[in-house]
Amino acid sequence: IFVLVLVCCGIMWAAMQSLANNILLDSLQPMARQSAKTVEANIHMLADRMMNLAADPRMVGEADGGTGAEAEEVLRASRDQVLTEAAKIYELYTIGLYDPEGHLVQGINTAPETLDNAFFALLQETDNVTTDASTRFQDSLGITMGVPVKAGGETVLYVVGVYKYDMLNDVLSSINIGKNGMAYIVNHEGIVTGHPDQSKVQAKSTLLQLGGGNEEAIKSVTTGETGSTEFDIDGQQMLVAFSPIHGTQWALVIQVPK
Asked: Exposed/middle/buried for 25, CB within 10 Å: 0-12, 13-18, 19+?
């Protein structure tokens, strides 16, 4: 009877461990999806601001209608006013107007002379609001976003601005998942683009490094799946859930000790 009790207790212990583990993994998935939606909502708010700027008639001179050098000077002045106001109101590091080849036409606050090739190619391909996969901008962190400026139904310019990183930092800090849990963001290449420790973003840390080298789990995160898994990091078992952030090339990852 004693041996039978021990065997039954052992089976129950193993079954309860497995059940508890599955329940935790299942409960983390909706948390990751909801947190990803929070980031999406903030990204959409930033996108709406950029679209409003692109739709401003002062960007293409529709409000003036003049010709010649004087009209060109008036157009530059009106554009400069729009860009300056936007940078101040929306807390942008920099903002600029770029021609269809990606070269700077007019900008403020050290706007880059040319756009990053990968980002510009995606901006041309979508011909719509586009968010850069990277959050590294010069020596700082920021969210680069661009949108085409239309005239007569054709794209004549691109307005590209770099929002300050504070928004992502605030959202990640607000995700409360316990004392030892954390949430961070990676892009489709597995590079960390948002993390409570900003030095990991600056250092271009990878999900492979943060995930203890678990390539199978990393593949699921970077291919836009929603799910959960378990793996070992520095000798500690971690429960991890992930979900794509729609409208970006990012995925949100929630990680808690088992």
From this structure: middle
